[in-house]
Amino acid sequence: MDLNADPLKKRRKILMKNLYNLGLAGILCGAMVGFAAPAFAQEGALAVTPLEDEGKLASFFKSVEITGFIDTYYSYNFSKPDDQRGSAGGFTRDAAEGDWVDVRSFDRENNSFTLDNIEISVFKPSTEKDPVGFGFTTNYGEIAQRLTFIPSDGRVDDDDFTVSQGFVTYKAPIGKGIDFKFGKFATWIGAELWESVDNPNFSRSLLYQNAIPFTNTGLAVSYPLFDSLTVTGYLVNGWDTFVDNNDSKTLGYQFNLKISENTSFIVNGSHGAEQDEDIASNADGNIRHFWDLIFALKPFEKTSLNLNFDFGTEEGAAGSASGFLPGDGNGKWWGFSGIVNQDITDYFGLAFRGEYFDDHDGARIGVSALRLWEITLTANFKIRENLLVRPEVRYDEASEDIFNGHQGELTTAIDLAYLF
Q: What is the pTM of this model?
């Protein structure tokens, strides 16, 4: 049959050619178009012209941002744990090493090459001209098992694949524009991200991995009160839950103040009941209060400094190990970290981090009288435009013998990541 004899098929051929030219996003959309077109062929044949088809889709994909990376690493623990993996759901490696507590959520492997994270993010921002947007992020690898790990109605991330973010956004035409975000998103709390490639150091800090959540699910409303101050309010299920684990909701806020071109100060807060009603007898009444302060400064062109302070208190949380165990009495935790990032050249830099974390009541890790500190040195090599190579050495020390009968733990790693 002559393709040109059928106007609908001719339009689809032209459309598919344009989608192919748009790359991956076009190809994905082309597949959807191919399935959907027959069902709407008669209705759409007279209603839409080829130029309208092409123009709408081309305009849509021009506003969509697709980014991602592949992150892999090799790590070695000089304490030589028998269990090489250690990145399953719990904090202890196995029954034989019950006194070995993992204080790091992600890079736990020992003497192993590891696929850490294949991440793809699709994001369409909300603008005044086009106020409806969306975003989602998928992860495959070791990190996927830890991004949402609190059991909620029997659902928990324990596989190598997860959708870590998925949300819809809307910019309301009020004043300077009120931004709404509805869905699951990365937490607003903390000075680091789960994406190692976006942090100065390869490994994440004790604060990021023990003091705060990774994700939240709910609603965020943001508004720029002044050119230098943006305020955001949050209403969410809780910390790291797919669905709420009790009958209460958590309120949060962020005040992001831009002091100058190279200096900012951020105040984050979170207040609500976070305990599982199947574990805690008074889950809805045990309120968690948490504050997070971040001061970011760039005193010189190639030097940046990041200071972070956290403080949390929660009723009925002492000894609860982040809510996995029944608690007894009020629990508190606090800590601070400092990161200095120095670019030596355009392709080489050094990042040094030092921090202290106090979980004396066992509210977060579950070990009473536990205090931790660590220092980390990371070399950042930028090979070409999109390839990062980052060797790192890190030392952790605890007040208790939590590292298989020892108080100290020395680890090294080399991380390779390709960004696209």
A: 0.83
